[in-house]
Design brief:
Elements: H1 5-23, H2 27-52, H3 67-88, H4 91-118, H5 124-142, H6 147-170, H7 177-199, H8 208-230, H9 239-265, H10 269-277, H11 281-311, H12 319-339, H13 341-364, H14 370-377, H15 392-405, H16 427-446, H17 458-478, H18 488-504, H19 509-521
Helix pairs in contact: 1-2, 1-3, 1-18, 2-3, 2-4, 2-5, 3-4, 3-7, 3-19, 4-5, 4-6, 4-7, 6-7, 7-8, 8-9, 8-13, 11-12, 12-13, 12-15, 12-16, 13-14, 13-15, 15-16, 15-19, 16-17, 16-18, 16-19, 17-18, 18-19
């Protein structure tokens, strides 16, 4: 068993599921366990389809399907959010957690049904398990959700189906089935939330920074879809197409996205953003510091490319070189988490929009910078960038930002959770910025004992666990809001399980690891 990484990965995910439900056992726990068992069997059907080339779309081939680890993320996030908000007495967000959990289960079940449906011959045992899991989930939803909540869950499922058909066709080999579930499921949920809040907007209700995140994500995705369809009919690399790209970006931004945001926050978005960024002197200092770090990251890119030109055209950045960016991101996020989390929240949204927009310019070869970006970023490609898009740097940003964006602020009157929950916003920093970075650096330079069936080393994993424990101690020293209340054993268990998952998973660890660590901490 230990020589099959997918089995060990599955075992680690099941252990995490059992850990969570050992603390929180209710009717949704039966659904989660049934979904985990069903996804375990269904992922082997996906793996077989990928090996034989029988999947409907072209998925990333250098990894397994990743269905089980991806299937459990959204349901577990919803369940732990429900429990946290229930303890705080916030009924609205408790129900929201139930909707998130139900949506995640239904979307994951749908992806499993597709695998079972296109597998020939029809796998009888997996069909029975899928039917049993589906029955348990639907029965629980029937007795837990109101009619409006059921409609909301079905809306997200419908958006997911159509979005999957469009994006997986336009972007072959960019995702595994599991990564598609996480990314497209998240986008579908965000789009549904934005539509729902736009139709039911009430002046003074809702936090502007939440609306800013929703509009930014949906706006940048719609922008990409628009240009993907447009450039099917015209060459994107000409000056005329490039001028049209910039002009339509301005039109869509100023004519659609800005009015949409204005309707939600009831004030001029540009003035609100400027006032927000310059509200305090601390924010100005942080912005100057982050500008310096961004310039340093650009300097590394230019320096490595100059090195490639002088040495060899086939020169590729080493693992250690790529981890420089992880160190820079840690240096970016830690001061933001300590001094101003709201500013970090908004700055991360802006940075995500800029990253994706620059990727559009690179992908469509938009003049004058498209070809230059292609040349500069090709140096940092690895085996996970097998499709037309380069996504690893965007996944790094998402992995660091998602714990900040998903932190249940409304259910924490004092602005922080107690015990291990106080470390939730630091999940990305610990799992990716510290753990994954240290594991890669020490594993590639000093590691000798390999985990069975993988390229990862025992020394790298152990060093990563040790480094994350030291990081937790430093957070306790420098962040006065963190109070762990003697929950050290749970923190050690959480960090160890997620570090083992990093050693065995073939999915995008920058995206998966912070979410699992956040679930364990919550």
């Amino acid at each position: 068993m230990l020589k099959k990484p997918v089995l060990v990965e599955s075992l680690i995910v099941v252990v995490i599921v059992l850990f969570v439900h050992a603390v929180v056992w209710d009717r949704y726990s039966w659904c989660a366990v049934a979904l985990a068992i069903q996804a375990f069997y269904a992922q082997f059907k996906w793996d077989r389809l990928l090996q034989l080339g029988g999947a409907v779309f072209q998925f990333r081939t250098a990894a397994n399907s990743g269905l089980l680890p991806a299937s459990m993320v959204i349901p577990l996030l919803g369940i732990v959010m429900k429990e946290r908000c229930k303890a705080a007495g916030i009924v609205y967000f408790e129900r929201f957690g139930v909707v998130v959990a139900s949506t995640g289960m239904l979307v994951a079940l749908f992806l499993s049904v597709i695998a079972v449906g296109i597998t020939k011959p029809v796998p009888t045992n997996t069909c029975i398990l899928t039917g049993v899991a589906g029955s348990i989930i639907i029965y629980t939803m029937k007795h837990s959700l109101t009619v409006s909540e059921v409609i909301e869950v079905l809306e997200v499922l419908l958006i997911f189906v159509y979005l999957s058909m469009i994006l997986l066709y336009l972007l072959p080999r960019c995702f595994t089935p599991g990564e598609a579930l996480l990314v497209l499921g998240g986008i579908s949920f965000v789009l549904n939330q934005l539509i729902k809040r736009s139709l039911n907007v009430v002046e003074g209700r809702g936090d502007p920074i939440d609306f800013f995140l929703l509009v930014a994500v949906v706006g940048i995705v719609l922008l990409g879809l628009f240009f993907s369809v447009l450039f099917i009919f015209m060459d994107s690399g000409t000056w005329i197409s490039s001028m049209f790209f910039h002009m339509m970006t301005a039109v869509l931004g100023l004519g659609v996205i800005m009015p949409w945001l204005y309707r939600l926050i009831q004030r001029n978005p540009l003035f609100w953003l400027l006032q927000f960024l310059l509200q305090t002197q601390t924010r100005v200092y942080l912005l100057v510091y982050w500008t310096f770090l961004a310039a340093s990251a650009c300097g590394i890119v230019f320096y490595q490319n100059a090195k490639r030109s002088s040495e060899s055209k086939k020169h590729q950045a080493s693992t250690i070189t790529r981890k420089y960016f992880h160190f820079i991101v840690v240096a970016t996020y830690v001061p933001g988490l300590i001094y101003d989390r709201q500013l970090l929240y908004v700055a991360a949204v802006l940075c995500l929009a800029v990253f994706i927009f620059l990727e559009y310019i690179r992908y469509f070869r938009i003049k004058p910078f498209g070809q230059t970006l292609r040349h500069l970023l090709s140096l940092f490609l690895d085996e996970r960038d097998s499709g037309p898009l380069i996504l690893t740097h965007i996944y790094l940003l998402l992995g660091m930002s998602l714990p900040v964006w998903l932190f249940p602020r409304a259910c924490t009157p004092k602005g922080t959770l107690s015990g291990a929950g106080a470390l939730v916003p630091y999940s990305g920093v610990l799992a990716v910025g510290v753990g994954d970075t240290i594991a890669s650096v020490f594993g590639s330079t000093m590691g000798e004992i390999k985990w069975p069936g993988t390229k990862k080393t025992f020394e790298g994993t152990m060093t990563a666990i040790f480094a994350q424990i030291i990081a937790v101690a430093l957070i306790l020293i420098f962040d006065s809001n963190v109070n762990l209340n003697s929950s050290y054993a749970w923190i050690l268990a959480s960090v160890s399980l997620v570090s083992l998952l990093e050693a065995y998973t073939t999915q995008i660890d920058n995206l998966l690891l912070p979410l699992y660590l956040q679930i364990m901490f919550m």
